[in-house]
Design a protein that fits this description.
Layout: H1 5-18, H2 36-55, H3 58-65, H4 69-76, H5 79-103, H6 108-125, H7 129-138, H8 146-168, H9 177-200, H10 202-205, H11 216-231
Helix pairs in contact: 1-11, 2-3, 2-5, 2-7, 5-6, 5-8, 6-8, 6-9, 6-11, 7-9, 9-11
Length: about 240
């Protein structure tokens, strides 16, 4: 049975406050000087999401973070290093949580459900991440280094291991784990990108079938069902 989406969606903020989603980029902003790297990362994430890497301005990031521009270079060394840290923050969090799911108890199907929820929770906690990632993929991953690719790969390896176990147990058919991953993850990124478009252009999209709102919980349940349909062995 699919994990209850209404209960998950209603409890998201409470769990985030309780510390389920914990790292520098999802903490509440602090006063000037309290935690300069955190403030810089938060400001940078918003700037990169809005403008992309090339158009993002270090001056604007410093102003949003309420720090001297020199502090950015002191803590991160360069604009590129700052950008990579924003990406790596997401993938570190995802890698840790998805690996725990892959190595944890439960059926392969229930862990696929949990994997989907985890991706959506982390993207919800960082609304800047889907637009940054979609821009980066469209550019051919022009700014991603080997370390970041390694963190990205850890997210895939977790779901691959779940799928392989399900196949070995006879619950899943012989589906390609990578193609399954490439079916699920981009759909999640596009959903969140669409949510931003609908919110920003509400007047223009009102009344259009393609502009009709969809709740995150409804989307999660749909993706879970789609993943199960892809993977389930048919008698």
């Amino acid at each position: 049975m699919t994990i209850c989406m209404n209960r998950w969606y209603a409890g998201l903020d409470k769990r985030r406050v309780a510390g389920v989603l914990t790292n520098r980029l999802v903490k509440t902003a602090r006063p000037r000087g309290a935690d300069s790297p955190t403030a810089i990362l938060q400001a940078a994430a918003l700037e990169f999401a809005a403008r992309g890497y090339d158009a993002a301005g270090v001056d604007r990031i410093a102003a949003k973070a309420r720090v001297n521009k020199a502090m950015i270079y002191y803590h991160f060394g360069s604009k590129l290093n700052l950008y990579l840290e924003v990406l790596q923050d997401m993938f570190r969090a995802l890698g840790t949580r998805t690996r725990a799911i892959a190595d944890g108890p439960g059926s392969a199907e229930s862990r696929i459900d949990a994997w989907v929820i985890t991706i959506v929770e982390e993207a919800t906690a960082r609304p800047w991440f889907p637009p940054i990632m979609l821009r980066e993929l469209a550019s051919g991953a022009a700014h991603i280094d080997g370390a970041t690719f390694g963190l990205m790969n850890a997210v895939y390896l977790a779901v691959r291991d779940i799928i392989v176990q399900g196949q070995e147990e006879g619950a899943f058919r012989d589906a390609d784990p990578l193609l399954t991953y490439l079916t699920i993850l981009p759909s999640i990124l596009i959903f969140f990108a669409r949510q931003r478009v609908v919110a920003a252009h509400r007047k223009n999209t009102q009344g259009l079938a393609a502009g009709a709102p969809r709740e995150a919980g409804q989307f999660v349940e749909h993706i879970q069902q789609a993943a199960r349909a892809i993977l389930r062995r048919h008698s």
